[in-house]
Amino acid sequence: MKLKLQVPDIPEEEQTPVVKGLLALLEQFAERIQEQDEEIACLKDEINILKGEKKRPAFKGSKLDSKTSLDESEVEEGSDDGREPRKRAGSNKKPKTSQLTIHEDKVIPPDEPIPDDARFKGYRDFIVQELIIQAHNTRYRLPRWVTPEGKEIIGELPAALKNRHFGPQLTRYILYQHHHCQTTQPLLVEQLREWGIDISSGQLNHLLVADQAVFHAEKDALLQAGLSASDYVTVDDSGARHQGKNGYVTQIGNDFFAWFSSTDSKSRVNFLGLLRAGHRDYVLSEAALCYMKQQKLPKGPMAKLRQHIGQRIRSKDEWEQLLASLSIGKPRHCRIATEGALLGSVVDHGLCDDLVIVSDDAGQFNILRHALCWVHAERLIHKLIPLNDTHREDVARVRNQVWDLYRDLKAYKRQPDDAKREALINRFDVVFTQQTSFATLNRTLKGIHRNKEELLLVLHRPTIPLHTNGSETDIRDYVKKRKVSGGTRSEEGRRCRDTFISLKKTCRKLGISFWQYLADRLDIGEHTIAPLPDIVRERATAPAY
Prior knowledge:
This protein is of the alpha/beta class. Among the domains are: 230-365, no CATH class; 374-459. 47% of the residues lie in helices and 8% in strands. It contains 19 helices and eleven strands. It has helices at 17-50, 168-180, 185-194, 201-209, 213-229, 268-275, 286-294, 299-306, 316-325, 331-348, 374-382, 389-414, 418-433, 439-449, 452-455, 469-485, 491-510, 514-521, 532-541, and strands at residues 144-146, 152-154, 232-239, 241-242, 248-253, 258-263, 282-283, 312-313, 356-359, 369-372, 487-488. β1 (144-146) and β2 form a beta hairpin. α5 (213-229) crosses α17, α7 runs antiparallel to α10 (331-348) and α13 packs antiparallel against α14 (439-449). The radius of gyration is 33 Å and the shape is flat. The two termini are 50 Å apart.
């Protein structure tokens, strides 16, 4: 910010040479202070970067005077300066109350008397939206009858109640607040009690985690539908504490669905186990043995496993028994064999036929057809710490080249072309094999170039994304919930956390109201929302226009 000096208004005739000299010195002093402030801010940014922290955010200027900064390309005919008057933001929106359902009409007559010769001209409508929040307790009285034979006949509660003392609307609200709005259980209990609901912490927890089989089944089917119908998925993982111990949550999804699973590990064995989409078997197929060979499993264990090719092992215990019977006991050999058998199960069930997995280059995700995120690749360059001005110029120049190439890859995705493909491949080689004055930058570029095939897979599969921003966005809610609530304590609570965040995120991607979805599944809606896995299959296989 430019330093403003509070200098009194001195008439020109009273400005002696000494006064004029002092005013000039003050102006120079203000400019020097501004330069020093900018230099200090830059030095602070460099210190923060060296400490591994973020520098100051770049604030954009105000758009209040944006009319003076329009490009000539934006100028249109129709006004004195060549521009049409711009409408205010939101002026093209539909009338706010045009589609509202009116629940009650209230006619308010004028206070003054109406003359006899006055003519009635209709009404001036003024619509007020209100939310009615109050406890509503219903006593169901079930008549009891006893026949002469001693048989008791008694009325039955509505099926939606499920023999609970809390109605489905209240259950729906609790589920929505906790899983969608991320309200903690103590705050929910406090809120409901203030509204006149007599509920304990244990009863609230029971409503959140008990009898959720319908939701669990739909969530479990979601992954199988998404993997079998999609061209690609993006994946990510994050920390998820459970029972006071560090754990992990894995996200798998794309534009049509999001699926989460919390486990104690984030290894490749764990990820392949998740990709089986509910299956529990191990398959020794050609795909499994091919994977083991790629991972350089020694010939001895390979020969023993090949004798059992085509065999399907039904459970983890049986698989471990088979390894023990074949005298395969070294941890590395067991791990590679297990990964191969899991991959064999994934391929055998046909869930990932030619599926592309887009990741941030975490090792556990590097299976099947693998693509890398360009944002994470460029971040390796962005995080470098230059040692002098020449290094800074080299880093800035290379980053500009990377983002120019990224923009052209986005354009290629919209209109694929063989000639453009070859040109982009050549540009990739030029950018990531160049030599600069910064040795660390050169090593980083060389490392990125080794991932050429995975970064340029989009040239052969234009439907896949160039980044994992979708997964980053999906998992952000999980991270916020972890920061607010800490972690889960019971296995059922852990499962419910994964289930409802999967269903909520999928509803959002499909354009379905999560509030209406809960009503539909709790038997208080109109049952108009189809099973989410069916909608995912339909959307994922629909032709693109």
